[in-house]
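new request in #modeling-help
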Amino acid sequence: GENVEQHPSTLSVQEGDSAVIKCTYSDSASNYFPWYKQELGKGPQLIIDIRSNVGEKKDQRIAVTLNKTAKHFSLHITETQPEDSAVYFCAATRALWGAQKLVFGQGTRLTINP
Amino acid sequence: EAGVVQSPRYKIIEKKQPVAFWCNPISGHNTLYWYLQNLGQGPELLIRYENEEAVDDSQLPKDRFSAERLKGVDSTLKIQPAELGDSAVYLCASSSQAGTTDTQYFGPGTRLTVL
C-alpha cells in the first residue's frame, strides 16, 4: 500500500520568511495530493491540493509542487504570518472508482516567530 | 453551511468500559469516514461509508470496534471494551461523492482518554 513520509517534523521560521515542507510517496499510481492544516483542538482543514496532471498550483501565499518522477511533493508558504502556526499534513491517494483512501504523512509543526 | 459535527468533544473512561462517538456529516455528503489520530501522528482511516454501506473497513479492529451508519446520514463508532492504547482523537470526515477526489471535510474530533 501507499506510504507517505513527511519532513521536517518541526519547523520554526521568522515572520515574513518562507517555509517549505516536503513529502515523498511510494505508490506511483497515486494521483491526488492534498495538504491539510490542523490547529490545536480542531480537525484538519484542506488548504490546497494538486492532481497528478499538474506540476504546480498556487493560491495566494501558498503553493504546492509535484514531481511525479521522483514521487515527491512540497508545500511552500511565503510571507509567513503568526496565524500560519499550526501542524501541516500532506496526504496521497490513488483515486479509483469507488475507492478513496487518504494516506497521511506524520505532520510538520510549523512555528512562526514574530 | 454547517460543518461536520461530532460529539462528545472529550471523553474519559476507565479501561474495559464501552464508549461511543457520534458524527453528523455535512448535509448531502454521501461518503463518511472515521479516522484515528494518535498524538503527533497523521490521521489513519478506520472505516469508510458510501451511504449506509461500509465499503472499506480493513483497518477497523473488529474484535472491539464497531460502526454503523443507519439511513446513510449520522454514524456511530463504538469501542467495547476500551483499552489503554485506544486513547487518541477520533475524527469524522465527509465528502460529497464516492469514487472521486472530492475534498474530505473533517469534524473537530473526539478526544478519548482511557485510564
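bot summary: The mean pLDDT of chain A is 93.
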